[in-house]
Amino acid sequence: MSHMPSIGRDDVARLADLARIQLTDEEIDRFAGEFDSIMDAVASVSEVATEDVPATSHPIAMTNVFREDVVETTLTQEQALAGAPEAQDGRFAVPQILGEE
Amino acid sequence: MTDATQHDIIRTSAAAQAAALVAGEISSEELTRAHLDRITAVDDDLNAFLHVNTEEALSTAREVDSRRAAGEELHGLAGVPIAVKDVVVTQGQPTTAGSRILEGWIPPYDATLVSALRTAGLPILGKTNMDEFAMGSSTETSAYGPTRNPWDRDRIPGGSGGGSAAAVGAYEAPLAIGTDTGGSIRQPGAVTGTVGVKPTYGSVSRYGLIAMASSLDQAGPVTRTVEDSALLHELIAGHDPHDSTSLTDPVGAFAAAARSKDVKGLRVGVIEELEGEGFAPEVQARFTESLEQLERAGAEIVRVKCPNFRYALGAYYLIMPSEASSNLAKFDGMRFGLRVVPEDHPTAENVMKATRGAGFGDEVKRRILLGTYALSAGYFDAYYGSAQKVRTLVQRDFAAAFEQVDVLASPTSPTVAFRLGEKVDDPMAMYMNDIATIPANLAGTPGISIPSGLAEDGLPAGIQFLAPARADERLYRVGGALEALLEDSWGGPLLAKAPELMNGAK
Amino acid sequence: MTASTIDLVDYDEAISRFDPVLGIEVHVELGTATKMFDGAPNIFAAEPNTAITPTSLGLPGALPVVNHKAVEFAIKIGLALNCSIAETCRFSRKQYFYPDLTKNFQTSQYDEPIAYEGWVDVELEDGEIIRVEIERAHMEEDAGKNTHVGGSTGRIHGATHSQVDYNRAGVPLVEIVTKPIPNTKGRAPEVAAAYVRTLRDIFRALEISEAKMERGNVRADINVSLRANPEAELGTRTETKNVNSFRSIERTVRYEISRQAGVLDAGQKIIQETRHFHEDTGGTSSGRPKSDAEDYRYFPEPDLVPVAPSREWVEEIRTSLPELPAARRRRLLGDWGFTDLEMRDVINADALDLIESTVAAGASAQSARKWWMGELARVAREQESELHELAVTPAQIAELQGLVDGKKINDKIAKQVLTKVLAGEGDPAAIVEKEGLAVVSDDSVLTGAVDQAIADNPDVVAKIQGGKVQAIGALIGPIMKATRGQADAGRVREIIMEKLGVTG
Ligand SMILES: [Mg+2]
Ligand SMILES: [Zn+2]
After folding, report:
1. This prediction's pTM
2. Which residues of A touch C158 (CB under 8 A)?
């Protein structure tokens, strides 16, 4: 990982697409300009992250945290939809999922 | 109540306010109103609050007063008002996380810690300003304008919890809730001359905290005294079955530890990697003087090495954006919050893109993109995987250090509060603010910041203590003792040296 | 290059030139009381967006906690499929944006499934047994349900917008993934359907799901690829998503084999993609490969901790496993004495449970089989319904057979009684009682009817007395008619013979 490829405009545009964020050309330029130095700064992690070091995903190791299969208080439909940008027939109204070709 | 008593009471500690309530010297309604008045007087300019909750706070206060009058047994902090960082969901009160994308959103449920506050009868004054989604070290990334530092209104109050720290520092609230993912409680504490504690990961439930990085986030107290932090920590800690990472340990006797003021024989380790280069001379000087105070009181000062701490910032800026990129995916304009519909071709995908493009600020976009990159096919092992290994190494450094010492110490923040706008265009410079606070988040260990004195430009600096996971009590013990020693030497609390904020904070 | 320009190759011809390989992913919704990661009720029919908590709606701040029962069910499935159960495993986030996902990631298992490396034997119609190797079984959550509005057909294509109900979001699923299934040749469609049916039966036996295909409790993703011969490398596969009936599974496999053969014959390449099956045409269509579909950016779910089932717990679950369908079938075959062919018909008609319950209620195995595979099967065909949907219980069938065995009624009356039971008129004995349908074997009644018949038919009597004993039927007919079919025909015959002084 010592020589990670540099992050260009196309990469930023692809990441923005993957993350569903509309960016202006100016934003793409700016982020592309910043990301190399940020990633360079973090790349040092590879210096010590050797095979023999186990990963830590949780700071306090725990296993088997379960809940019993018991019904809890639910939201009402009104509460569920209260924050919705648009609702219809007790459901969340969302834009068409496929665009017409 | 005269203006003079009002002036005095809001400047006392939460513990003192609670005592005044118990003694019947003041009602919770009066106390709450005094704080609301203070907010009215100074917050236009400070912008510590995004939402003030006058009616609900007063009605809670009146209810506590009548329960007290009826002779009910109440929680020790019942009737003492509190401010809550806007990243914590509050049923019926707007919660924005400082973001445009959540403008006007009113959660239909309470965070577990908010339920605890309500059950204990603490009037919630309102929601405090913060960096957008807690991403920042200066509260400048808030979509609702920056919060100003009560010590110097041209300076940042730290971040991301600058609103909570400023509110407490400016006597708008005696208590506040913060959250700390990489230092967002401790660093604002240091630059505003207040006290902040990041508890052991899992000590306080994360249920209802709008997540930035799930494995790093932790809520904690923001106060003016160590004892107040201990009292608030005792109130909000405890096992929560709604949070899989919540500890089942009994809550420690934090307030008693804060009051013990005994550091004889306590071994304090100075982390060699967290001093020198990058640390401002006067910040460093106040740190050294604080250690001397402890030594005179019987503590033993030991130098320790934590060689892997220098990789902590890198690991943090991989793990945090990775988890954040995922946690923030739900903000898409479908179920709640902002929806932006583009004119041409408004498919769900395009609406999501437009909404997130318009609803997120720069820093949030930057971190989501970095996290998306770090998790994307082919890079996972090198970035996220390596960062998790560094996490193990940082934990090992802590374990080795805590073989030699009881607590670790460092300056909380490398510098005093910088000027608004000074670092906004330099992400790396901004990220360096968290160099000393981040290791604790990676390792899950608890940390406290207390004022160490005035440093560069007559502005406050902070000293940080770190303890092993689940040993939060030690922080209160050393923090309470050092606070008393320093206040003796200053002739009163450091905040008394802050310039007086006039009406409108002019 | 669209599917419409490709000619389908005749199925048999395709099979003669290509070797199909299957791969099947089955999702089963677990029948827990609550969802996978929160306490919202796991219910099928409810007002939209009412079976949800902040967690299943993915609200900011809400957190998941694993349902203990769901883990137990997943382990049951793993054990029933002869899998190893992981010593430790964890959940990961599978990230993609879609309006039916409340968090825009699905909490699933990625590199550490709870169960792995198993197998299941699948019996085909002719009794041949195929062993299907299981790659893994993992736990995950279901998504919400989109209703597409504005298109002419309610389909996603052409819809102007969609409505989302998140009641199903977070319902616990176990996904079972096979290894490639080779050597099925022309029987690939049958193997695919039989495999899913076998799993369905196992889910029911384990009582971990109602496993109703028609409700989407069980959904299959069908992977098909073709290669030139069984020695060749695996070809590129397509995955047809969410096929949810046995018939549709067969049609999907058949269609994909014909279509892929057509694509290959045209000298083109199979595109690795997801496809959708269309009930109306019996064909599949491309699900439009997405550029980012393959980059799910999986990473371990930081809001959940690892699941490490203790070996004690796993063994406890193993000993509590019920008898599985294959073993049960072998046992019942021995107990009941059916022929292999009879047993297969019973299984194919989904009548095993019904017959077993009927036998348990007191009927003989053969009579139970006769009812369910005969008269009731005919009624079910008429009503276009399944046997278990008929308005009659095994206990009622056993009671009905008991009346026949006790000579209270004869077979003909029994069918009349059954019709009334099916019409909801009550239990068999009560109907016989109420309607006076019991067989008449009282000699005083029968003698009168016999005398009348002898008097009315002198010519028949003459024939009988002249030695043509078989003409006796011509006397019995009117008697049965006079007694509305309730006369005990055997006794009537005896009385006539006594009266006429003939011997049989
Ligand atoms: Mg699949
Ligand atoms: Zn799946």
Report:
1. 0.90
2. 100
Please indicate, yes or no, if residue B336 is contained in any of the structural domains. no
Tell me how far apart the alpha carbons of residues C70 and C67 are, in angstroms, rounded to a whole number: 5
Q: Which residues of C touch B88 (CB under 8 A)?
A: 61
Torsion sign (Cα): B335, B338, B340, B341: positive
pLDDT in tens, B141-161: 999 999 999 999 999 999 999
Q: Is residue B381 part of a domain?
A: no
Helices (H), B299-437: 312-327, 348-359, 362-375, 386-404, 427-431
Q: Find how far residue B382's CA is from the centre of its chain.
A: 31
How far, in Å, is the centroid of ligand 2 from the Cα of C115?
Answer: 14
pLDDT digits 0-9 by tens, B91-108: 999 999 999 999 999 999
Answer yes or no: is B36 within a domain: yes
β partners of residue B236: none
Number of domains in chain B: 1
Sort C470 into a burial class: Cβ within 10 Å, 0-12 / 13-18 / 19+: exposed
Residue B240: inside a domain: yes
Cross-sheet strand order for the sheet of B49-52: B49-52, B124-128, B82-85, B175-179, B219-223, B195-198, B447-454, B460-466, B407-411, B267-271, B300-304
Neighbours of chain C (3+ CB pairs under 8 A): A, B
Domain extent for B283: 3-308+392-503
Mutate to test the interface with A, among C69, C305, C307, C314 (most CBs of A within 10 A): C305
- Give the fold, CATH level 3, of C443-500: Arc Repressor Mutant, subunit A (1.10.10)
| Cβ neighbours for B179, distance < 8 A, ≥ 6 positions apart | B85, B87, B88, B134, B160, B161, B185, B209, B217, B218, B219, B220
- What's the ipTM? 0.96
The β-bridge partners of C83 are none
The full set of domain ranges for chain C reads: 3-297+306-315, 323-423, 443-500
Q: Could you tell me where the DSSP H helices lie in B207-311?
A: 226-236, 254-260, 281-296
Cis? peptide before B214, omega within 30° of 0: no
| CATH number for the domain that contains residue B92 | 3.90.1300.10
